[in-house]
Structures are given as structure tokens and as C-alpha cells.
Amino acid sequence: QVQPVESGGGLVQAWGSLRLSCVPSGRTFRTSLSSMVWFRQAPGKEREFVATISWRGLTTYYADSVKGRFTISRDNAKNTVYLQMNSLKHEDTAAYYCAADSTPLRAPARVTAGYDYWGQGTQVTVSS
Fold first, then answer.
1. Would you give the distance in Å from CA 85 to the centre of its chain?
2. What is the 3-state secondary structure (H, E, C) of 6-48?
3. Which pLDDT tens digit goes with each residue over 75-114?
4. Of the candidates 76, 72, 74, 75, the residue with the CA atom closest to the CA atom of residue 60
5. Whole-Å CA distances, 77 to 13, 32, 44
6. Which member of 1, 28, 97, 104 lies 3.0 to 4.6 Å from 33 by CB, making a disulfide possible if both were Cys?
7. Which residues of 81-120 are buried (b: 16+ CB within 10 A; e: fewer)?
8. What are the pLDDT digits (tens) for 32-60?
9. At 128, is the secondary structure helix, strand, or coil?
10. Can you tell me the distance from the alpha carbon of 95 to that of 22, in angstroms, rounded to the nearest whole number?
11. Is 53 helix (H, G, I), strand (E, B) or coil?
């Protein structure tokens, strides 16, 4: 079983920054050929797309609500994907989930159906 493991969440004041990391665990799974994504889910709300990155890191997409504030990146040598979050707002408070596409070389998707391996999430709380 492959499961991405997220880390880096926590409590931060508004306008602060956090960097989330995602590393797969379980059986050996190299994410270097997979699109990766971050979603988030606030209490009582549906899971929503945040950002995604192609397997080589050449293509990225962002939700309008985070564009210009968040940056997704990857280090394939470390098998790690990052989400740098700056200028955090109270409305960014949510559990953040990392996911990987098990189909290699496929273009990044902005829907949950495009990803097969999901992490347990890391909580980000922004105090206003």
C-alpha cells in the first residue's frame, strides 16, 4: 500500500507562512513520474483543489483563491513535493491533503478522481 505522508502543518498567524511537505511511504513508489496534487478540506465543506504539478515540474495549476500566494514544487531526487504557503488568511484554515497519480507521465488533473494515493492530511490553522 502506498500512502503519501504530509507534514509541516500547524498554527500560524494571518499573513504568516508555512511549507508543507509530502513524501510517499509504504512499498517503494517513486513519484518522479507522477503528477502530484494538494487539496484541502475545511470543516463542513467539500474537499477543494489547491495546486498541482506535473511529473517534471514544468506545469503547475493553482486555485484562484491561492494564486500568487502559494507555490507548489517538487524535488524528484528526494521524492518530495512541497507547498509553500505565504500571506496566509483565516480562510486557508483546513486539512491539507497530498495525493499522487499512479499513472506515470499523465498530465496533472484538478479533480480528486485524477489521483489514487491519498495521505491522511495535515492541519493548517490560521488565526486572524
1. 11
2. EECCEEEECCCCEEEEEEEEECCCCHHHCCEEEEEECCCCCCE
3. 998 889 999 999 999 999 999 999 999 899 999 999 999 9
4. 72
5. 32, 8, 37
6. 104
7. bbbebeebeeebbbbbbbbbbeeeeeebbeeeebbebbbe
8. 889 999 999 999 999 999 999 999 999 99
9. coil
10. 14
11. strand
Half-sphere exposure of 16 (CA within 13 A, CB side): 15
- Neighbouring CB atoms inside 10 A of 125's CB total 15
* Residue 67, number of CB atoms within 10 A of its CB: 10
Grid coordinates representing 16 are 504568516
Task: In whole angstroms, give the CA distance from residue 26 to residue 8.
Answer: 20
Residue 34 · residue 116 · CB < 8 Å: no
